[in-house]
Write a structure and sequence with these properties.
By secondary structure, the protein is of the alpha+beta class. It has 2 domains: 148 residues, Jelly Rolls (Sandwich); 106 residues, Arc Repressor Mutant, subunit A (Orthogonal Bundle). The chain is built from 10 helices and 11 strands.
Length: 260
């Protein structure tokens, strides 16, 4: 697998986390890879004649959008495939898509199911561009053409930043209080922009925080990781890992096929 990242235009930097090209030369390298939920929406734009990937046993031949919000997916890139991957920050894909995010929660859908007409034209354009730098520019031009500034929700953005700063340990009542919204209003806005309820989002955020601790402090115990991550007890820590990875924390640490 060859992966290369590209610069993001200033106008898109608050929305787009990364843009990279992915080209698969060896299919076996990606057999049974499990990718964990991160509350992000990702575009995978195909510019080859090969199917792009097998995701949860479903073969995807064209460009796709992955709403990997709160559950893991099993991915196998197809030999000979090439795509440009665009990963949005949590909640930041909504200004580009014409429907509420929760409608596609935890699914992988064809690009054309969301944007309809433009996809064939964009895929053809990417296929004709001779280098990945040019493809990155073309995709970013496409995104700028679909950006609707009026769909930005400043109160949800405030909550997302708070969740990041607290590693998911702040509670929903506090978020609602600080934004001046009722919990019901906040939940509706989260579902629309992020695809999850505030409580669900904070749960995934806390889980991802624990993964960061696993990477940063590989020598400390899982019990201490749970404590640092804000889990009430070990049982809740193990339960979340079962939900978000399908494995126990110890199995995640030892597994070679789980990406985080």
């Amino acid at each position: 697998m060859r992966i290369r990242s590209y610069p993001i235009l200033p106008q898109l930097q608050s929305y787009v986390k990364s843009i990279c090209s992915m080209e698969c030369e060896e299919e076996a390298d990606w057999n049974q890879v499990r990718v964990l939920p991160d509350t992000c929406v990702e575009l995978f734009l195909n510019y080859t004649n090969s199917p792009i990937a097998v995701i949860d046993r479903a073969l995807h031949k064209r460009s796709i959008v992955s709403f990997r919000l709160s559950r893991p997916v099993d991915v196998q890139m197809r030999k000979g495939s090439g795509c440009l991957a665009v990963c949005f920050y949590p909640g930041m894909a909504y200004p580009f898509i014409p429907v509420p995010t929760h409608l596609f929660r935890d699914t992988t859908v064809n690009f054309c199911d969301i944007w309809n007409g433009p996809i064939s034209e964009l895929e053809d354009k990417l296929a004709c561009i001779p280098n990945d730098e040019g493809r990155s520019s073309a995709v970013q031009d496409f995104l700028l053409g679909h950006l609707e500034l009026k769909k930005q929700d400043r109160q949800v953005a405030y909550c997302l930043n708070k969740a990041k700063l607290t590693r998911g340990t702040i509670n929903v009542h506090k978020l609602a209080e600080e934004t001046g919204l009722s919990q019901r209003q906040l939940s509706r806005r989260f579902h629309q922009s992020v695809g999850l309820s505030p409580k669900e989002y904070l749960g995934v955020c806390r889980f991802n925080s624990s993964l960061q601790y696993l990477v940063e402090y590989p020598r400390i115990s899982l019990t201490e990781i749970a404590h640092l991550s804000g889990y009430y007890d070990q049982a809740h820590f193990i339960r979340d890992y079962k939900v978000y990875t399908g494995h126990s924390p110890g199995e995640v640490v030892a597994a070679g096929h789980i990406l985080f």
